[in-house]
């Protein structure tokens, strides 16, 4: 079974950090050279995309021959993906560059599974191979590797095989990070087993990313307005820069960098959300999580603007896969089911035609008034199972670029910003 460890990497001295940055920068330079040559070959009908120069002589002294090979292989995989999508007729663009020397390269590298080692313990460490030229310059012995501190508590310390290590500098967190694919046995696929057999339902939204209700009466709300606004700001900047391009051009290094930054910010927040949510549900004894199919929402009642930003931001399938992989660590199952009309259904009388939704508030002539997304998750849960517990005060969580933290203010169940809503049922 395939899994992955993600952990922070900390150089032990200024010299080690300088060496690491040079290694990553040289890797980016190599990627860009390989990619440029393949782009030129692609544009020339008489040339072969796969026929490229030998780069080990130029970069081997800095990176080591095995790392040169891994970066070339990673670039080959990117081009294979491009041709595969092109064959299917799906919109796609040629593999891009990892920044440039003028604006700064993206610090990233890939290290063969035999060219690094990780030791877990009280003082965990990562050792990676570097080229002989860098070893000589920084005083490393012939057989010595660059030793780096590892911070964090990776989930999969016992594995049958480790894969190619991805090592990069995270601009958002301003730290070096490593992504280690591993192969584990089925016996080690879980870190824990459910504490009970409770259930939970998730409503995925636009202004609030996830609203969750459990059969224990707990409700969680992950706010998304700030994240969406930053996503939209970057999208607008991309559109502005695209409008300034010369005729016939569709992208630039800066535009690709903005796309990359937008994606990384989104993925970072979603990764942390999945982890925070599953850990909370595990502690609450949840063994099954129901997720509403986003297509039901997009096809029913939301505005075009909301549909567009939700669809673009969420990458729904990727998020559900991320959620399911995290849940599996705790023995929790994730099931995607239809949630059509739950956001408009009154949890009190069941009406969908007479309810009025304005921003976060759902009201009904029967007298019900509550938070729309939390009500939707509760209605969705009641469609899947029996709920006998009354709901506790919701927990509202906000993103601070690193963690999801409980907000000191309560969930706005009683906000009345629309006069029509305020008057309904009174």
From TrEMBL:
Molecular function per GO: DNA binding
Domain Probable transposase IS891/IS1136/IS1341 positions: 191-297
InterPro entries in the cross-refs: Cas12f1-like_TNB, RNA-guided_DNA_endo/Transpos, Transposase
Region (Disordered), start-end ranges: 406-426
Keyword Glycoprotein included in the entry's annotation: no
Coiled coil spans: none
Any one GO biological process: DNA recombination
The protein's name: Transposase
Lineage: Archaea, Methanobacteriati, Methanobacteriota, Stenosarchaea group, Halobacteria
């Amino acid at each position: 079974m395939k899994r992955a460890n993600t952990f922070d990497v900390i150089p032990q001295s200024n010299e080690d950090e300088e060496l690491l940055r040079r290694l990553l920068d040289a890797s980016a330079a190599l990627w860009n050279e390989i990619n440029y040559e393949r782009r030129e070959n692609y544009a020339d009908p008489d040339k072969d995309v796969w026929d490229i120069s030998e780069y080990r002589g130029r970069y081997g002294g800095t990176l080591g021959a095995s790392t040169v090979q891994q970066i070339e292989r990673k670039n080959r995989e990117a081009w294979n993906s491009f041709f595969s999508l092109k064959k299917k007729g799906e919109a796609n663009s040629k593999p891009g560059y990892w920044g440039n020397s003028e604006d700064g390269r993206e610090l990233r590298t890939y290290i063969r599974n035999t060219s690094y080692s990780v030791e877990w313990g009280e003082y965990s460490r990562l050792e990676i191979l570097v080229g002989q030229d860098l070893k000589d310059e920084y005083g490393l012995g012939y057989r010595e590797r660059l030793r780096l501190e590892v911070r964090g508590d990776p989930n999969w310390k016992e594995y049958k095989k480790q894969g190619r290590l991805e090592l990069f500098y995270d601009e958002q967190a301003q730290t070096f990070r490593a992504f280690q694919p591993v192969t584990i046995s089925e016996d080690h696929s879980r870190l824990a087993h459910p504490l009970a057999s409770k259930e939970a339902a998730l409503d995925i939204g636009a202004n609030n990313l996830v609203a969750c209700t459990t059969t224990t009466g707990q409700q969680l709300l992950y706010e998304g307005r700030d994240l969406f606004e930053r996503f939209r700001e970057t999208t607008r900047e991309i559109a502005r820069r695209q409008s300034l391009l010369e005729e016939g051009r569709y992208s630039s290094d800066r535009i690709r960098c903005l796309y990359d930054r937008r994606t990384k910010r989104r993925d970072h927040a979603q990764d942390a959300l999945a982890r925070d949510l599953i850990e909370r549900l595990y502690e609450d004894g949840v063994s099954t999580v129901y997720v509403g199919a986003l297509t039901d929402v997009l096809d029913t009642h939301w505005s075009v603007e909301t549909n567009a930003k939700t669809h673009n931001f969420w990458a729904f399938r990727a998020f559900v896969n991320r959620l399911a992989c995290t849940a599996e660590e705790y023995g929790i199952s994730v099931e995607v089911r239809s949630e059509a009309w739950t956001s408009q259904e009154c949890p009190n009388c069941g009406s969908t035609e007479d309810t009025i939704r304005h921003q976060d508030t759902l009201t009904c002539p029967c007298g019900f008034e509550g938070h729309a997304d939390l009500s939707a998750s509760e209605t969705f849960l009641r469609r899947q199972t029996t709920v006998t517990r009354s709901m506790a005060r919701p927990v509202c969580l906000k993103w601070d670029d690193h963690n999801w933290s409980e907000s000191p203010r309560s969930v706005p169940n009683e906000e009345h910003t629309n006069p029509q809503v305020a008057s309904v049922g009174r």
